[in-house]
């Protein structure tokens, strides 16, 4: 691991990175960044339409609608719609999808300012579907899949398909630190004593109910395809 963390501090690491940028070194390196926050290379030029010179990363160098690579891998060489078996829901079941809030990602859970704004993670349910399950705004709802379950508060909206429910991914990482756990602590930063949202804090992470399934062609994780049932607690 030493070769990946060959530095003694964050400033040491940044200094090492800066040492490879001649223009920034000439401007003062880390001291320049501390004063100005950012450095732009005046000699840099954005390269547009790079594909015209180098082509695309395909055998022909062009956009391939009929893909020989997919065909050799046993898939249809042309774009083809195939129903997703996991989407065949029974009465009372939902498809769980995830989204990312504008102010939070998987890596910002320990940011005190962002957590002050986004410190809960409700489950989005269509009002019509919620009425069938006698679920009202703020009720605790248990979401269960073949893998596991989680509990979240209900957020009722008409802005979602009646048989789809949604929750933000990336929240609820309590292992990230004090702020992620909504715990006050003493430090040189007085704001770490101002964690006021801990009392009503109800951040949830949906990963306990999302099985590890990947797209057979692209290899991406299936974050939008989990079949679940819900129950008011």
Describe the secondary-structure layout.
Blueprint: H1 10-18, H2 22-27, H3 30-36, H4 51-54, H5 68-72, E1 93-99, H6 112-117, E2 123-126, H7 127-132, E3 140-144, E4 149-157, E5 164-168, E6 226-232
In short:
This protein has 233 residues and is of the alpha/beta class. The chain contains 7 helices and 6 strands; from the N terminus they run αααααβαβαββββ.
Walk me through this protein's architecture.
This protein has 233 residues and is an alpha/beta fold. The chain has a domain at 89-232: Barwin-like endoglucanases (Beta Barrel). Helices cover 18% and strands 16% of the residues. The protein contains 7 helices and 6 strands. Strands 2-4-3-6-1-5 form a 6-stranded mixed beta sheet. It is flat. It starts with 9 loop residues before the first helix and ends with a strand. The mean pLDDT is 88.
Helices and strands: which structural class?
alpha/beta
CATH topology descriptor of the domain at 89-232: Barwin-like endoglucanases
Q: In percent, how much strand structure appears in the residues? A: 15-25%
How many strands? 6
Order of helices and strands: HHHHHEHEHEEEE
State the distance separating the first and last CA atoms.
Answer: 46 Å
CATH architecture of the domain at 89-232: Beta Barrel
- Main beta-sheet strand count, sense and barrel state: 6 strands, mixed
Give the averaged pLDDT, no decimals: 88
Shape: flat
